[in-house]
Amino acid sequence: MIFEQFYLECLSHASYFIGDESSKKAVVVDPQRDIAQYLTRAEELGMTITHVLETHFHADFLSGHLELAEATGAVIGYGSKAAPEFPASLFEDGERLVLGEVVIEARHTPGHTPESTSWVVWEHQGDEVPYGVLTGDTLFIGDVGRPDLLVSVGKTADELGHMLFASLRDRILVLPDATRVFPAHGAGSACGKNLSTETSSTIGEQRRSNYALQFTNADTFVAAVTEGQPEAPGYFVFDAVLNQKERGTLDEHAMPERYSITRLLDARDAGVRIVDTRDAQAYATGHLRGSVNVGLAGRYAEYAGSVIGPDEDIVLVTDPDFVLEAKVRLARIGYDRVTGWFPVDDLVDVPAEVERSSRLTAPEFAARRAEVDGLQIVDVRGEGEWRVNHLDGAVHIPVAQLRRRLSELDALRPTVVYCAGGYRSSLAASVLREVGFSDVSDIIGGFEAVLLNA
């Protein structure tokens, strides 16, 4: 058997390639939308991808099932509780897909979503202990999938939580301790609050160490796993719905159109969102007025999706070498409206449209705080970070909520934004400048630097 995990750090997303060496048949589970790596691997192994299996309708990324089906002719498979709006094979609970020696069983595990299905993998027919179980967002390493994303019409978080408790107890934890656990996400995903940096484990290890598996009462379990969950980016509902629909497929090799400066300025003035993908320091030295800073070095797609709507057109300001990466990473969350790009070095041709942004060191922030009456301080970190510690007098607006809570801030007051390290604060400060805040700074090194300087 060939069993390989493909882990995408920027979305904390794990997908899987499972191949049978006797039949040369393979399946891909929970693929990312840009599929070249799976096609390349299948070609290297001389295998044919016959099925694309999904654990559920994902909310945090747009899956590549349609792209793979189009490229290979593979059958798309879900558990039978799913109702996709495109051709798919729906597997009943306990139904098996036989590749050859390798056998994969659908095991219905509702809770994170009503249609959630885990896929149990046997290396050989007749093996008593499965090789592993692909748990999707039902069971993570160190956590379980949250039932409170509220993307499932007709089900409350409490109902889903009780379904999740039963699925874990009756469908997952009945597997032998030696069974390997392969989830769809790791640390950093907003699909849970306590995900490990490890990307695989065993049933036995999780039975002993996973806090969420220690509860014997369903009500107590639901209260514990829903408390303190991170703010979900606004695109989650969009992706959960789009993953159920027929849609256009991604050409991951097609370059967006290169814009002239005139077309770029016209687009900006017409309300198109301009995204500058450089790091915060480079952006601060000079950027197009009205652009927002979402650095490629961070969780680019996730944070772009926090401040830009899926129905908005986007133009990228970036280095030519990074255009495709910037486009594809947005496409991974279903943001296909990248209408063009502009080379960042060409901004020198329009100095009247370029501005610098203010970034303060921790000592500079301390001095400004002492000197400026009525300084407006905005903390754009998550709820959990805020609860641990924050600056006195700060207004707390997580970056994912910023655009809808602008009315809580005074655009005429001098404003300083901070996050943990400086990535989110540069993004948030650029959004505030975009909507008319005239005196906005962020803190280099973020809250951690402020604490060290105290």
Could you give a quick summary of the protein structure above?
The protein is an alpha/beta fold and 454 residues long. The protein contains 14 helices and 23 strands. Helix 9 packs across helix 10.
Q: Profile the largest sheet.
A: 6 strands, mixed
Q: What is the molecular shape?
A: globular
- Reading off the top of the CATH hierarchy, the class of the largest domain is best stated as Alpha Beta
Helix content: 25-40%
CATH architecture of the largest domain: 4-Layer Sandwich
Give the full name of the CATH homologous superfamily of the largest domain: Ribonuclease Z/Hydroxyacylglutathione hydrolase-like
Weakly predicted, low-confidence segments: none
Q: Helix- and strand-based class?
A: alpha/beta
- Tally of helical segments: 14
Q: What number of domains?
A: 3
- N- to C-terminal distance: 56 Å
Average of pLDDT = 95
Can you count the beta strands?
23
Give the strand order of the largest sheet, numbering strands 1, 2, ... along the chain.
1-2-3-4-5-6
Oligomer: single chain
Strand content: 15-25%
